[in-house]
Write a structure and sequence with these properties.
The complex is a heterodimer of chains A (332) and B (77).
Chain A lengths: L3 H17 L11 E3 L4 E7 L2 E6 H20 L9 H21 L3 H21 L9 E5 L9 E3 L3 H8 L10 E5 L8 H23 L1 H8 L4 H11 L5 H49 L4 H31 L9
Antiparallel strand pairs in A: 1-5, 2-3, 4-6
Helix pairs in contact in A: 2-3, 2-4, 3-4, 3-10, 4-10, 6-7, 6-9, 6-10, 8-9, 9-10
Chain B lengths: L2 H16 L1 H20 L4 H30 L4
Classes of the chains: A mainly alpha (332), B mainly alpha (77).
């Protein structure tokens, strides 16, 4: 009962603005689905301007939250953990076990980056579900771009006209709701950055484990069979079977390279697509009927966890594959 | 039919048909993985990890469909 009271108070506090704000004309007149993040403000460094988008701003909030979480979880370390320390130990132990079962002794080496990805993606996915992320913002009427590219608005022209007045000519200049805070996972730039970190670190670990030259020649530039063929050619007994397999290996290397590049694409769009589509679904359901988002909200909490887990475990698995020497499976 | 309408229909078709194959593939994959886990619960961890790799490659096809649908829908080309 003691724990229920603060929750009820919080709910009441959240309910009050919902009841009062519409009286002052702060209706949710538009709901926009924008692939591009909206720019909140610009930082100026001399001649160089750095646009800070709402997703970047939320990334800073996520970083702050992770910092606070780690600080309070490890502040008073106890042998028998309580509260936050317990949660953190649960997560770390789960990944330690997974790392051991996937990568064996190398698991510990990959864990820092894998766990970082997991916690960051989990925090940013779940933060986007906090009420107020998305619908609270300001309305931008961009006169230079009457219908901004890459932005779909649900707003009806007459609703906008009512809100902005007829002088803006809402039909010609579509207004867009720019939220103050928005989940970083709904920005392709964030997910692309995470995918690049994951894939590039995989390559670096592979080169570190096998040696730069060996790694490249064993995975992408498989010319070993050609060298063997030339050796037999020099001896005067050319083995043409080796030449055929050489071309096959070369082709396999190219395919391997393409799959390496497509990993970036699939990492990026798996996370972005799932979280972005989830938020769009919640928005559309809210417009259909007010109680409809509840089951989807629960689903989104689950999806947010699963996507963070999948991103991290795929990174772990790809790192394990990259550090395993070619043909090592036959030895055990 | 306007240009926008045609583009939206194209995007809907791209994602709609594009997810049929990966959907079937994911069903088969998880079916096989669950069978394996049921028959040999001790190997569940290993099976699960390999299942995730398989899901990643299968789902990538669906993601390509999503990318194409987004490219068409948002007039990127």
């Amino acid at each position: 009962m003691k724990r229920r009271l603060p929750v009820l108070v919080l709910l009441a506090i959240l309910l009050v603005p919902g009841l009062i704000l519409p009286r002052f004309g702060a209706d949710a007149v538009t709901a926009s689905v924008a692939v591009q993040p909206e720019v909140l403000f610009e930082l100026e460094f001399g001649s160089f301007t750095f646009p800070v988008s709402n997703t970047l701003f939320t990334t800073w909030i996520v970083m702050l939250l992770i910092f606070l979480f780690a600080f309070f979880a490890t502040r008073k370390m106890q042998l028998v953990p309580h509260g936050l320390q317990n949660v953190l130990e649960l997560v770390v132990e789960m990944w330690d076990g997974l790392g051991h079962s996937v990568a064996g002794a190398r698991g510990r080496k990959f864990l820092p980056i894998v766990l970082t990805i997991f916690i960051f993606v989990l925090f940013s996915n779940w933060l986007g579900l906090v009420p107020g992320f998305g619908p609270v913002g300001y309305i931008v009427v961009d006169k230079k771009h009457p219908a901004p590219q890459g932005i779909v608005t649900f707003d009806l022209p007459h609703v906008l006209e009512e809100f902005l007045g007829p002088k803006h000519g809402a039909a010609e200049h579509a207004g867009v709701l720019a939220p103050f805070v928005r989940s970083p996972s709904t920005d392709i730039n964030t997910t692309l950055a995470l995918a690049l970190i994951s894939v590039i670190m995989t390559q670096i670990f592979g080169m570190q484990a096998l040696g730069v030259v060996k790694y490249w020649f064993a995975r992408f530039l498989m010319v070993g069979k050609f060298i063997e063929f030339f050796k037999t050619l020099l001896k005067g007994k050319p083995n043409f079977g080796l030449l055929v397999f050489g071309f096959l290996d070369l082709f396999m290397g190219i395919l391997e390279f393409i799959s390496e590049v497509s990993k970036i694409l699939s990492f990026t769009f798996r996370l972005f697509g799932n979280i972005f589509a989830g938020e769009v679904v919640l928005l559309i359901m809210a417009f259909l009927f007010f109680a409809l988002p509840f089951p989807f909200y629960a689903l989104e909490i689950f999806v947010g966890f699963i996507q963070a887990f999948v991103f991290a475990i795929l990174t772990l698995v790809f790192m394990t594959i990259a550090t395993t020497a070619h043909g090592a499976e036959e030895h055990h | 039919m306007t240009d926008t309408g045609l583009r939206l229909i194209a995007a809907a078709i791209a994602i709609g048909f594009g997810t049929i194959g990966p959907g079937i593939g994911l069903g088969l994959l998880v079916n096989a993985a669950l069978n394996a886990m049921g028959r040999n619960p001790e190997a569940a961890g290993q099976v699960q990890i390999n299942m995730f790799i398989g899901i990643a490659f299968t789902e990538a096809l669906g993601i390509f469909a999503l990318v194409v649908a987004l490219l068409i829908g948002f007039k990127i080309f």
